[in-house]
Amino acid sequence: MKLVLWAVAAGLMLTGGAAAQTYGETARIVRDEWGVPFVYGETDADAAFALAYAEAEDDFSTMQDVLLMTRAEMGTVHGREGAQIDFMAHFLNVREKAARGYASEISDETQALVDGYAAGLNAYAEAHPDEVIRRGLFPATGEDIVAGFILRSPFFFGLDRAVGPIFDGEKPARFEPLEAGGSNGFAIAPSRSADGATRLIANSHQPWEGPVAWYEARMASGEGMCFAGALFPGSPVILLGHNRNLGWTNTVNRPDLVDIYELELDRSGKRYRYDGEWRELERERVWLRVKFGPVAVPIPKTIKRSIHGPVIENDHGAYAVRYATQDETRHVQQYYELTKAGDWTEWLDVMRMQAIPATNFIYADRDGNIAMLYNAQFPDRAEGYDWRDVLPGDEAAALWDGPVDFAQIPLLANPASGYVVNSNNTPFVATRVAYNLDRADYPERLGIEKRMTNRIMRAVKLLDADDSITRAELETIKYDRGYEPDSPEGLEFQKVIAAGETAADLKAATETLKNWDWSLDGEGMSDALAVLIMGPLMVSTYFGEEPPDYETLLRDSAEFLEKHHGRLDPPLGDVLRLKRGEADFPLTGGPDALRAIGWSDREDGKLIADVGDSFVMFVEWDEAGNVASQTAQPFGAAISRPDSPHYNDQAELFANMELKPVHLDRLCGMDMSGVTPILERNQAPRR
Fold first, then answer.
1. Is residue 484 predicted with pLDDT exceeding 70?
2. Beta strand 215-221 with 37-41: parallel, antiparallel or unpaired?
3. Phi and psi of 625, rounded to 5°?
4. What b/e string do you get for 586-610 counting C-beta neighbours within 10 Å, with b at 16 or more?
């Protein structure tokens, strides 16, 4: 299929809704000295056009993968592995929901925003046809953008962990709110700051590349948008950051938002019992197109659905899945409206939409308000059931609707302690003990997590110890690399030492661990061995998996250091590295430290970091309400452009725990009349 773009005058037209609309005529891009884009349009939709175009300039390959996912066409490029993602898109009925939401549920303004973003992506594809990975992939539509939010959102609160074992032929497991990602968020009120400032720290922990890696941008429009922060590929709006008046960051939370129902089927397997009656299972035939060599082979699959939701059958039975926001389509609208909020009251009104299925929000503003909201679209469940276990599929009372009223969601606003913090832990530990929310005020059926992390234990300890926090002291806390001995990893670490003491060949390694100072700051000679131990321990404690054999873990770690470094105690920076092209820098920090660093690859005796601290943003409003912010990323703006100077130019900054300025006010007040619009600097689109 030939790549097609409809061109109208100087803009790009998308058809959808009541009438055709032209986008991009006023879209402009300016980049700062770090290559970070400032995107502008006279309308918000044109600003979204510019955002899509700027990110395509930096990471078009990932944006195309996101588009493939939303279309359930990953298998056509990435084979069997991609087809598994395509099946989930069909299983969750993403395209039908997106079509409904785009046509009738999102606002007209949001529809224009997603259309403008899609048009910007199309404009880039048309101007760079040699970069398009598959014929027929473009044009993208606003409906595709809506579908992206519908597809990705439930995986942030653990849908994959709930259904994965059932797909693998196992019985459904009892739900436990185990964390799949990390992040820290801090907000400090004027009463706790040494200089009377209000401060917000966004410190997300995400992969450093791919569809859920942060992309930094600043976005402004003639319709009042002025926002700086970061987004995921495929988002037409910044997802976390700040405007002149307020800001927020997110940390992943894990309330119980997924329920599994066991169905009773009749002998034919086509009907299930519900509320004393037999009902027909809905059946849908879908085709997965899977790349084999040069061709994509269609493979048929049948998806079944009950009144509860999609159904999985294995040798143990038939199980229906129901999850929060499974019929929600307004995710992107809520994020968009948040960026336009002007104060705490307006921001909180937007949060009452409850369209974003889950994730903590840490908030601060120029008026000195701070808050921690344990946001989730909690199902309105009935009493009398164990909602963490498998539920009876034939009882109507077990079929919840929702969500619960916004007033039932844990919200800690303006505590007298003067700070809030979250590090993927229970919302009942967010500040000084006397001012925390009371767990007894929230019923068990909400499924609120109870877990703690090393990071929250360190954060509260350090913040509690300082009643007058300077900016420098707050930076020290954010970049802390310490561990609490009674944290989940700390308790496991002590078991490794105990196991080593019983093995004669591990005497030297055990003594090295016993001498560790409980900080991966690179100053102790035991840090390299400690970080190798902490990696697997963090994985097991985070995901509730069986811990590794302690003696084997210590032996393997010691042998790794002896083999590659000739000693048990090399400097941490010789082992833990940030590598990107020619950039190669030592790192400090480690798994579940406030300075979180993780890795998946080992290369020539080095641990190559690729996850953890990613987008870092410090925001502060001084006593007069003036805002300033600084940021850093592990690599650079041009994430998949090795020939760009911005491919890795932030690597040294990030490794040294330093930040660069944002200059939001200067950028939002810039005269854009002298900047050439995107469409004028491109060749005229082909018809």
1. yes
2. parallel
3. 90, 5
4. bbbbbbbbbbbbbbeeeeeebbbbb
β 226-231/215-221 pair status:
antiparallel
Rounded to 5°, the CA angle 22-25-30 comes to: 135
Whether the CB-CB separation of 215 and 53 falls below 8 Å is answered with no
Which of 453, 486, 485, 492 shows the shortest CA–CA distance to 592? 453
Q: What are phi and psi of 662, to 5 degrees?
A: -100, -40
Q: What is the pLDDT of residues 58-112, one digit of tens each?
A: 999 999 999 999 999 999 999 999 999 999 999 999 999 999 999 999 999 999 9
Name 72's bridge partners.
Answer: none
**Residue 429 pLDDT > 80:** yes
Contact criterion met (CB below 8 Å) for 167 and 88: no
Give the contacts of 626 (CB within 8 A, at least 6 positions apart): none
The CA-atom distances, in angstroms, between 669 and each of 232, 239, 617, 684 are: 26, 22, 21, 30
b/e per residue 27-44 (b: at least 16 CB within 10 A): bbbbbbebbbbbbbbebb
- At residue 175, the 3 state secondary structure works out as coil
Q: Are 561 and 508 within 8 A, CB to CB?
A: no
pLDDT in tens, 611-668: 999 999 999 999 999 999 999 999 999 999 999 999 999 999 999 999 999 999 888 8
- Residue-wise pLDDT tens digits, 352-394: 999 999 999 999 999 999 999 999 999 999 999 999 999 999 9
Rounded to two decimals, the pTM is 0.94
What are the phi and psi torsion angles at 336 (to 5°)?
Answer: -60, -45
Give the model confidence (pLDDT) of 24-69 as tens digits: 999 999 999 999 999 999 999 999 999 999 999 999 999 999 999 9
Q: How far apart are CA 352 and CA 244, in angstroms?
A: 22
Q: CA 157, 161, 164, 165: dihedral to nearest 10 degrees?
A: -150
392's CB contacts (< 8 A; 6+ apart) are 261, 262, 398
DSSP 239: -
* AA identity, residue 595: R
Q: How many other C-beta atoms lie within 10 A of the C-beta of residue 348?
A: 17
What is the Cα–Cα distance from 135 to 619, expressed in whole angstroms?
43
Beta-strand pair 7-8/37-41: unpaired
Contact 229, 250 (CB under 8 A): no
Tell the residue number behind the tokens 């429009």, with chain if given. Answer: 221
pLDDT per residue over 573-612, tens digit each? 999 999 999 999 999 999 999 999 999 989 999 999 999 9
What value does the CA radius of gyration of the chain take, rounded to a whole number of Å? 25
**Before 570, cis peptide (omega within 30)?**
no
Nearest to 49 by CA among 215, 240, 212, 219: 219
CA–CA gap between residue 151 and residue 70 (Å, rounded): 7
